[in-house]
Design brief:
Number of strands: 11
Helix content: under 10%
Radius of gyration: 13 Å
Order of helices and strands: EEEEEEEEEHEE
Number of helices: 1
Strand content: over 45%
Largest sheet: 7 strands, mixed
Amino acid sequence: QVQLVESGGGLVQPGDSLRLSCAHSGFTLDYYAIGWFRQAPGKEREGVSCISSTGGGTYYADSVKGRFTISRDNANNTVYLQMNSLKPEDTAVYYCAAEYRALMCRIVGGIPPPNEYTYWGQGTQVTVSS
């Protein structure tokens, strides 16, 4: 059974950093593309970052490029989203998602939309406020 569990969210001030984790079970990470999405109140879910299988590349939304870094630890079955220089507009519930197409992000050349992913976590709240 495929499971994704996000953690690491919280309340921080502008300029602070957070590292989100997406722990997964039930599948081999190397065969899946993993995406991070976020959804703010009243807004659609938007893609933040995507990582293909090892060596397959990483992709970011323009709004987070240079501030966020996605990485994967296949041995520990975890994908991370390091978020630096956080801004109030980064406030949202953050979700990780998985799809059994290891090179999906590279093939798309960016972040595939939410309907391309089969498996989702429950989300973790990130609030950036002074």
